[in-house]
């Protein structure tokens, strides 16, 4: 099992996290997206570094990880963000869960928001509207419409060779788009609530409530809005209920930004700009050859 670990201007704590994950997998591929190339201390014999220099952004880094996994015969690939705290035994538990569901192309845990302590939202396959769940660890595994990248385990032989992460999206909604594309290939995605990880979404304040604002920058608000529209356009036919639900979520999140966040006018302008440009953007998925 390989773990591509994407870094961007990594802090001093990243090396410790890399050493910790290196004890759980066969190989760690650090894909460094820092434009000027970051420096790393000695990390161990099963850790290598590929300097991607932010080509294709997060999508480009994940595509490099997948290329490396295929070229070196790895059967599974587990994804991590540089700030994810990795609990002991996580990779083994994900691999065991994958073996019990050989049809699954991608599986992942539930997550707790590291700032709020609340469970993260998982969109399931339940019903026309694709019911949103905030699972507790005692719930059984269920099929998810999509999962976030961090701590997701991909079974390489279940990923179509031509399918890549869309480098045109840069960062936001990259995981949603990839999972929905997987589903277009009739692959399954499973959430395993008995496995829990702590992961930060946005820049929420410590102890903030479940519905607290994300406090993303105007640039991220722009990308989120633009990429959401692109995803709506691509998958409306296959998942109309989810798209309609996500339009409502987008509207409520935009309203929350205007009411609760600082720099609200700049952020509202970025949201509206992204919304307009999302309708004009190319609809096809993009990746480097």
Question: What does the model show?
Answer:
The chain has helices at residues 14-22, 57-71, 90-100, 174-184, 218-235, 240-260, 264-280, and strands at 2-7, 27-32, 47-51, 76-78, 80-81, 104-113, 122-123, 132-133, 142-143, 153-155, 188-199. It has a domain at 218-280. The mean pLDDT is 90. By secondary structure, the chain is α/β, with parallel strands linked by helices. 41% of the residues are buried. The chain has a 5-stranded mixed beta sheet with strand order 4-10-6-11-9, with helices on both faces. The chain has a 4-stranded parallel beta sheet with strand order 3-2-1-5, with helices on both faces. The chain has a two-stranded antiparallel ribbon with strand order 7-8. It is built from 7 helices and 11 strands.
Provide a brief overview of the structure:
This is Glycosyltransferase 2-like domain-containing protein. With 289 residues, this protein is an alpha/beta fold. It is 35% helix and 18% strand.
């Amino acid at each position: 099992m390989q773990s591509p670990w994407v870094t961007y201007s990594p802090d001093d704590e990243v090396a410790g996290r890399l050493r910790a994950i290196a004890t759980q997998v066969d190989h760690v591929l650090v894909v460094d997206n820092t434009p000027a190339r970051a420096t790393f201390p000695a990390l161990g014999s099963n850790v290598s570094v590929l300097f991607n220099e932010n080509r294709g952004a997060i999508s480009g880094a994940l595509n490099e990880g997948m290329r490396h996994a295929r070229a070196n015969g790895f059967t599974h690939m587990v994804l991590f963000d540089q700030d994810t705290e990795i609990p002991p035994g996580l990779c083994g538990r994900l691999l065991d869960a994958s073996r019990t569901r050989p049809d699954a192309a991608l599986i992942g845990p539930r997550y707790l928001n590291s700032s709020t302590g609340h469970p993260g939202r998982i969109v399931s396959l339940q019903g026309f509207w694709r019911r949103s769940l905030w699972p507790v660890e005692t719930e059984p595994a269920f099929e998810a419409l999509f999962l976030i990248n961090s701590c997701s385990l991909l079974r390489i032989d279940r990923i179509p060779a031509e399918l890549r992460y869309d480098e045109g999206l840069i960062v936001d909604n990259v995981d949603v788009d990839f999972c929905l594309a997987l589903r277009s290939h009739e692959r399954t995605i499973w959430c395993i609530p008995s496995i829990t990880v702590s992961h930060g979404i946005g820049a929420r304040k410590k102890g903030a409530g479940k519905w607290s604002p994300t406090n993303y920058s105007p640039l991220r608000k722009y990308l989120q809005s633009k990429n959401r529209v692109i995803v709506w356009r691509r998958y409306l036919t296959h998942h109309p209920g989810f798209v309609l639900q996500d339009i409502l979520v987008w509207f409520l999140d935009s309203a929350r930004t205007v009411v609760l966040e600082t720099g609200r006018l700049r952020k509202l302008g970025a949201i509206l700009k992204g919304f307009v440009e999302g309708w004009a953007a190319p609809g096809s998925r993009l990746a480097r050859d």
